[in-house]
Amino acid sequence: MESIIEVVVGIGPRLAKCIFHIMESHYTSKVANLRDQVGELNNAIRNMRDRVDEAKGNGEVIMDGVQRWLESATEISRRAEDFPNVNRDRANVSCCNVQIPNLVSRRKLSREAKQMVEDLQREIQAAQGFNVVAARPALQTVIAMRGDYEDFGSRKTILEDIMKALQDRNVSRIGIYGIGGIGKTTLAKEVARQVEKAKLFTEVAITTVSRPPDFSRMQREIAEKIGLDFRGLESIPARADRLQRRLKEEKSILIILDDIWEKLDLIEVGIHLENEGCKMLMTSRDRDVLGFMGTNQNIRVDDLQDDEAMNLFKKIVGDIVEKTDFMRLATDVVRECGRLPLAITTVAYALKSRDDLSVWTDALMQLQNSAPTNIDVALKNFYPSIKLSYEFLRSAEEKSLLLLCSLFGEDRDITVEDLIMCSVGLDLFPNVHTLAHLRIRVKSLIVRLKACCLLLDGDRGDGVKMHDVIRDVALSIASGEGGMHSVVLKKKEDCRNLKMKKLKDSKVLSLLPYSNFDQLPERLECSELELFLLLSDQRKCIPIPNHLLDESKDRLRSLFFEQANLVSVPPSFHSLQNLQTLRLRGCVLEDVNFIGDLKNLQILDLSVSTIKQLPIKVGNLSRLQLLNLKGCRDLKLIEPKVISNLIQLEELYISEYFDKWEVGEVDVSRKSNVNLAEIENLPQLTSVSLRVPDAKTFPKDFKFSEKLERYRILIGDPLGYLDSTGISRSLLLNLHERSQLTALGLESLMKRSEGLLLDGLIDVKNVVYDLDREGFCDLKRLHLRHSDGVQYIVDCVDQQIHPHKAFPVLEILRLSGLRNLERICHGKLPEDSFKNLRQVTVWRCDKLKNVFPLSIFKRLHSVDVSDCEMMEEIVGHVRSEDDGAVEFPELRSLHLRNLPKMVRFMSWSEAEAAGGSSSVESPEPLFGEKVI
Q: Could you list the residue ranges forming a coiled coil in this record (predicted)?
């Protein structure tokens, strides 16, 4: 390379000076342009992160392309930002202790800067192409729910007929009909499972129609399954139009409409199928309804045969039936149940583990003598059996919880939080004094009610549902015994029913507005009301009349509003002095000062509301145990001393959008915000959810309490997605040094976490050894990203270092941008390590040569490996005893992308496993003959 002196001698001082100026200006302008483009890309990254955070807050799944763009764009931005500093020595040359521009290097650096600018612009342009960043997660319960299907001979024939009809080109709409509780829904779900297993259709979507039909929910459930986003569309017609246009693109889809009560206009909903390969399966109690829906073939589901009914009963109650006296009673009990699966199941679970002959005799007499009044004719066959199951519940608590569940609307997911909040207001558990204990009690009762087949698994998380027949019977019991009523509001005239005598004496009232209902009565004439629920799934908010609660204000203890407009707060709200639970979820709120007057409040839920600030008066609630501000995207101010004054607070959930934590001492001269020290000083706190964008916000010597039992803590805005469904303890951290974990008291929380996302750690080499030598015994989901120091996830070469099994309950593993990761597992793993692992994603781990050994890989359900420069094989060395055909029976999804060095799916010899040459003289099949 020519030196500066040679250039100067060859071209003369004046010309050299001119060239210096031109070259330096050229280089300077390129670097300046680079900085400008970095700024634009960083803005795009921040905007995308905001969109991603919003989607996560709504429980949506982030699209893979978005995640890859964020990680790629962040990496390119980081390299571009470092470019001037990293290349400072290349850009200059020392001459007589003076730094002089190096012309040749600067020319090359200018070209590199230009290329980097193009890379930045490409990423910026790519960001503009993401009109949608996430979608609601597809519901998997259709396939997962297998426990309630019995392969009866009579059902086998029906199932075969349905499957034949689905494959008949001349049949586009199939109907299944039979009385309630006969097993239509169970049969439809089994059809869906078999259809997906046989791959007869590319998509299977199921939705429950129920009574009255909720078009909005139906549209949402089908859209979720096919990945359609209704963002920005509020009205049912607008969503129907988008759904219809989307379904026209489907060449092969099966839509299942369960529990149709009346003729539906499918065009109005947006699910009118036109393509030849698309079909519809419908269930109804009425064959004529199916005829109105245009079915080509209708299949009847009859009650069970005598032997099938008895076998079902025996399977549940056990061998006690074989005793002569019990067998005689069992025969009569099954006969009284009308050979209906739902009735038999509920009674059998009520009698299970009861070996007293008198109990069985009493049960039979109750079935024979139960004669309900004022009950729907369709329920008469079920009322005795379900009422018996209710009576046989072991405690008043179980009964009360079941009746509460019936208030929440047909086919609605009922959460543990729903039941906890109702329980507090009604004082159902007087001997339970903490929310943590109450949560455990409610969950245990749910388990019991599921075991009795009175509750079903919900669609998400730990929620539950009720079979519509059981709900109808439970509502009948609730109205007769507990003064509990649920009223569906479809039109203004329905409000007149609220003046009926039985409703006026209600202690518990649930109003369920559907469709376009938008006008509540001016006044509820319910002076005995203790619990009032307004449960709306509508997009628009219902205005609350000023005098709605005037007559109820003295006794009301629990108030639930969903999607209500409370811009103008009714005067009576200030007088709700006995109120213990207030839930204003998804409501339009402005001034919430009135809440500070409710001195007996124990639970306050303002989640997903429009609240902008939490005023100082809320700090007056000295009895408050739970404060929920999740999803409040407009929340900007939590006044100082509000949180710290809530000394009884056990559960605190701060909006993930709130990031205005005060640093240092509060400045009284301006409008200040809450300081994290207020959270540290809550003595009863056991559950917390919050986001802190910058670790520097934490006060000196701050530590999270080790008493925390449930938490979701985000620190430093980590980039990446961590699904928190079904887990109660998770950390999402963007920290650079292990010492920060210690400084913030996070080490003990990390060891107990079920979900963990670590972003940016630079001084961690061996994850297990450096972070938790006990092997992360509770961790179910791990996402490790952009931690350049990581060489191994588990290094077991030295067994003295790792005496424990590693990740024994881990289900999901994501490794992203670990540039120095050499092996996930190094050395022989302790037994039971990774034994529950099912899903693995590896992205941009450039030194990694394989993923997992065969022993672990054979258990995996989903594998995604992409952009790994040195990846040679997916499965590590197969031992000699495995040197035969290898099956992967659990593998459902395998994605391999951009792996330039990959030559085989798995290695078959010690030489290959030891890292021999990856080159081959002749191409070989990727999988070979031994992989099945």
A: 31-58
